[in-house]
Amino acid sequence: MHQKKIDAKASCRITREAFYVLKDLIALTKPGLLRLNIFAALGGFLVASKWDIDFVLLICMLIGSTLTIASATVINNYWDRELDLKMERTKNRALPTGRMQPGTVLLYGIILGVIGLAALFVFVNPLAGWLGFFGWFVYIVIYTMWLKRTSTWSTSIGGISGSMPPVIGYCAVTQEIDAGAWILFALLFLWQPAHFWSLAIRRVEEYRAAGFPLLPVVKGIKRTKLQMIPYIALLIPAGILFYTYGYVGIYFLIISVLFGAVWLVHTLSGINAKDTDKWAKINFLISVNYLMVIFIVMILNTKFS
Fold this sequence. Notes:
This protein is mostly helical. The chain has 2 domains: about 1-175, UbiA prenyltransferase (Tetracycline Repressor, domain 2, Orthogonal Bundle); about 180-305. About 85% of the residues lie in helices and about 0% in strands. It has helices at about 1-25, 30-50, 55-80, 80-85, 95, 100-125, 125-150, 155-160, 165-175, 180-200, 205-210, 215-220, 220-245, 250-270, 275-305.
């Protein structure tokens, strides 16, 4: 009887430890970022297919994209493990706390990438595979290993990788890069800097302490606010072009222009805002909702236009 209790306790401990390991493995993929990117990939696919859906192709694209993006975020965690110790937001991650070993995390990231890219190349099409590899390479090599540590351009150029998911979804169907692919790329590329800088402004001292040369750290908050403006302003004509080329209907045009204008006006108000932290928090929330709303409308307005 006593031995059974010991065995039960040992079994519970192993189960609990396995749960925490699984939790850390999932956290390394940055699930919030992953969900956003996969939703964008789904949007690109549905726009291109106009809801004439090849479900096998869709599932293969989603699996390949998910694993490829997860690979990039895991390797990003591996490379940033020492810098993550210096920031309140990241110091409790699995690597900085020592809950997982660097070699294990690197191998995990490589395996995810190999499987994800193989799925895109073999089961989707070679163009989708190359787009996935390009986004993976930019995020890991250009952004994480180089620009994130050396240049204020890290956010803008690193945004190229974040713009790939909807293009992958779109090209999974079309098998070519046309105007629709470029406009989807533009929407995500233009959205990202203002979105991220809104967060960076609120955490500028953390980034400064960690040694990240972000725009608000190097050039100051006022310069960062001003530099957001052209990115957001250009989102409005990007949405108009998407309608002009016939990829979406009138509802997308109206909502994208109105929502873009709201975001632009609020960003402009930041130049003279007295409470910068409050302004940046609201601007960040607007950016998140902007992307979610326009992609939902994009998907629905493709079907019902």
